[in-house]
Design goal:
Blueprint (H helix, E strand, L loop, with lengths): L12 H5 L2 H11 L1 E3 L5 E3 L2 H9 L3 E2 L4 H4 L8 H8 L6 H14 L2 H4 L3 H15 L5 E2 H4 L2 H11 L3 H11 L13 H27 L5 H10 L6 H32 L1 H9 L1 H15 L5 E6 L3 E3 L2 E3 L4 E5 L1 H4 L34 H18 E6 L18 E6 L2
Parallel strand pairs: 2-8
Antiparallel strand pairs: 1-2, 3-5, 4-10, 5-8, 6-7, 9-10
Bound molecules: protoporphyrin IX containing FE.
Length: 403
């Protein structure tokens, strides 16, 4: 029974500052837990894998944001209505197959030189500052990568980015406040309007770019509605920047904390870069949790679920499950890189941008290895509370630049 489950202390800032000891205790002693709102939480690898594979657990639709206080007519509500993450079954497969044509590992490779050059430039520019705050400055790298990937001009990218700056990620997290709701609604109203204008521009003057190709797909029978097209574009843009910059920041942080691991990467960058990136992704997942709901009454993880019951998987649980990872709290870049973590989720909604994110993160790791020496943190980063995309407040570093 849910009442008997231990409660995840989501109202406690100390939990967010370092959730791993609490997650470990709950995972080992109780297997599962429950959020303060009463949503069952999955913590072990095998249970997480099962939930994403079983067809009776689907993604939540509009009820997910209704539970967070959004109403029909709110810009975020209307955006969610067409979002790929809120679709299931045939609608979802149709949207995914369209995006998948563009988001292949091969097309992700074209951003590699962009990332390498930008990280190198950032490192050169801020060397010797004594306080280069990665958290503040790294966002430009995934931002310019996704712009290059989507083939929109730097000006258009800057405009979308400025409109998105208001932020929205926390609107999908636990404990959504009115302030978070207002911010998210303003952001989505501005973004949808701007992308709508971009679509009109491309209709008038088609270009050889992703948006024009998506418009062609829309006009090719009614496979993609105007709303779906605008939202799909923003899904890709918004899914790409905050998550990737979170993991990039963690990469700097963990290399600064584990100089032996960075030295190891320097000794064999080509052999170890994949392992280094997979380890940062496992150790510091960019996403806090991944939600589902049931289509029928069922059992999983020793729990009974009613029809239409929401359930959440706390990604830090499976990522540090000792049944899957030897000594899971050790940061070790020599782990087998083919043993993927839960960071990009699994199943039908498995992250569409994982190949792009991995390419960006690998180039960032190679740039750090090649262009820094004596990398260290100059102040302790603190993890923010009640987020959906994990972020620290700051990550100031010092290093010597190697040309
Ligand atoms: C390290 C960076 C990233 C992390 C940690 C991450 C994580 C995730 C996770 C956990 C999901 C599943 C969400 C759920 O339904 O529970 C997801 C889905 C998605 N991601 Fe990513 N992501 C990253 C980068 C990217 C990038 C670069 C893009 C765009 C190119 C992207 C686009 C998407 C899209 C469109 C979906 C929705 C897929 C669907 O519902 O079928 N992500 N991501």
């Amino acid at each position: 029974m849910a009442e008997a489950l231990p409660v995840l202390p989501l109202d406690d800032d100390d939990y967010w500052a370092d959730p791993y000891p609490i997650l470990a205790e709950l995972r080992e002693d109780h297997r599962t837990a429950v959020t303060p709102e009463g949503i069952k939480a999955i913590l072990r690898w095998d249970d997480a894998e099962e939930i994403k594979k079983r067809p009776e657990f689907i993604n939540e639709g509009l009820e997910y944001i209704e539970a967070r206080g959004f109403k029909p007519g709110d810009p975020l509500y209307e955006w969610r209505r067409y979002s790929i993450g809120a679709q299931n079954g045939e609608d979802h497969r149709r949207l995914r197959s369209l995006v998948n044509r563009a988001l292949t590992p091969k097309s992700a490779d074209k951003v590699r030189p962009v990332v390498r050059q930008h990280v190198r430039d950032l490192l050169e520019r801020h060397a010797g500052d004594g306080g280069f705050d990665v958290r503040q400055h790294i966002r430009i790298v995934p931002f310019l990568s996704i712009a290059a990937f989507l083939e929109i001009s730097p000006d258009e990218a800057a405009e979308v980015g400025a409109k998105m700056k208001g932020g929205s990620g926390d609107a999908f997290g636990p404990n959504v406040t009115q302030e978070i709701r207002d911010k998210a609604n303003d952001t989505f109203a501005a973004v949808m309007e701007f992308v709508g204008e971009l679509v009109e521009d491309r209709r008038r003057e088609p270009r050889d770019d992703l948006l024009t190709r998506l418009i062609a797909a829309e006009e090719d029978g009614d496979r993609l509605s105007r709303e779906e097209l605008i939202v799909l574009f923003t899904n890709i843009f918004s899914g790409a920047v905050e998550t990737t910059s979170s993991v990039m920041t963690s990469m700097f942080m963990e290399f600064a904390r584990h100089p032996d691991q960075l030295e190891l990467l320097r000794s064999a960058p080509d052999d170890l870069v994949r392992g280094a990136v997979e380890e940062v992704l496992r150790y510091r997942p960019g996403f806090y949790a991944s939600g589902n709901k049931t289509t029928q009454a069922t059992e999983l993880a020793g729990l009974h679920f009613e029809t239409d019951e929401p359930v959440t998987t706390i990604i830090g649980g499976p990522n540090r499950d000792p049944r899957r990872y030897d000594d899971p709290n050790r940061f070790d870049i020599t782990r087998d890189p083919t043993l993927w973590s839960f960071t990009f989720s699994m199943g039908p909604h498995f992250c569409l941008g994982q190949a792009l994110a991995r390419a960006e993160l690998q180039e960032t790791a190679l740039a750090i290895a090649a262009h820094t020496r004596n990398l260290e943190l100059t102040a302790e980063p603190r993890w923010l509370s009640r987020v959906m995309v994990n972020h620290v407040d700051q990550c100031p570093i010092r290093y010597e630049f190697v040309p």
